[in-house]
Design a protein that fits this description.
The protein is α+β, with helices and mostly antiparallel strands and about 120 residues long. The protein has two helices and five strands. The structure holds iron/sulfur cluster (2 copies). The site of one iron/sulfur cluster (SF4) has 13 residues, from α2. InterPro entries: Puta_zinc/iron-chelating_dom (IPR005358).
Length: about 120
């Protein structure tokens, strides 16, 4: 999932990335992004701003904007498929951190957005 819009471009020494999250954002605008409620910052060790989330069940919350159609996480900045960033990158949930460029969820989201 995409780093902030202000994030520096990859180092010239870094190996070329297969897929560039900063010009994508499809996974943040395709699925419900839910996670254990304790990851929200109204819990002692939580980081995700609770004001950007909605309850899903007694044990789950999700990012606002990802529970209804058209899906778009409220923290996503920019234009999907052009230039995007996550407004809460350092505070994002484990669900967001688990999606990796090129994995099954990523490719499914990119297909939805016809980016492949
Ligand atoms: S769909 Fe894949 S390439 Fe696009 S932002 Fe998500 S992880 Fe990155
Ligand atoms: S919190 Fe950030 S990484 Fe997670 S879905 Fe929203 S915009 Fe994407």
């Amino acid at each position: 999932m995409p780093p902030p819009l202000s994030a520096p471009a990859a180092s010239v020494d870094a190996p070329p990335a297969l897929l560039d999250c900063q010009s994508c954002g499809a996974c943040c605008a395709s699925f419900r992004v839910s996670f254990y409620w304790g990851e929200a910052d109204d819990a002692p060790m939580g980081t995700v701003p609770v004001t950007l989330t909605q309850p899903v069940s007694p044990h789950l919350r999700c990012m606002s904007g990802t529970q209804t159609q058209p899906v778009r996480c409220v923290a996503l900045q920019g234009v999907v498929g052009q230039q995007v960033g996550c407004g809460i990158y350092a505070q994002r949930s484990t669900t967001c951190r688990e999606v990796q460029p090129g994995d099954e969820q990523c490719l499914k989201a990119r297909r939805r957005w016809q980016l492949d």
